[in-house]
Amino acid sequence: MYAFELHKADSLANAAAILAKTGGRPLAGGQSLVAAMKMRLAVPGALVDLSGVPELTGIRKEGDALVIGAMTRHAEVAASGVVKGAIPALAALAEGIGDRQVRNMGTLGGSLANNDPAADYPAAVVALGATVNTNKRKINADEFFKGMYETALGDGEIITSVSFPIPKKAAYVKFPQPASRFALVGVFVAQGAGGVRVAVTGASSSVHRAKALEDALAKSFTSDAAKAVKIDAKNLNSDLHGSAAYRAHLVSVLAARAVAAMA
To answer: CATH 3.30.43.10 in the chain, residues?
Structure first.
């Protein structure tokens, strides 16, 4: 790890000002960024600790949406009665992230800003058609994730909260990599006012919607319909944990299990 400056912000405006002055990076839970710094894969000259910014925490319902602050810990999402009542699948997803230490340190905003190809939260954001709110604008889920570890966030832009439309039904099922608990493949299926949305994580370089599954489930919302969809393995990941063909097979299987769970 190279030397860096650590600044602690006490408000959102203060954090934005420090970022603008130093050209540094926001520090949320640190579960991804600090590890990358230790391996010298990330070399920020300055970090701005957001843990003391009160505007970035909290869980609340606003009309037909569930709003979660960017600095809300995974464990808080998993334990929240508000989340369990509005979107039980989101609470279950949070409960399955990493291990206890990761869940008590990692944050929603940090996970989305990092956009690990196998992270769980991006699947929920895309499948639920959520809106990522920042200190500068609102970003639709379909426009937020750009590629491997790449998002639509600009320099000095801070995620403040995420607004999740409350679906009629939703479920998330993943096949975890045993050591890391990241998703070898994870599938989030949601039925909302706009129809069926299916998001896949872990299978490719970034979270993505599975249009073939969405089309099949729009016609027949059954496990058999999901299982019958043949996923193209052409652009999927292949590594020591599983081939592209294996991951393609898992996408349909896990989608079918998600549909079954929703029943």
So the answer is: 1-53
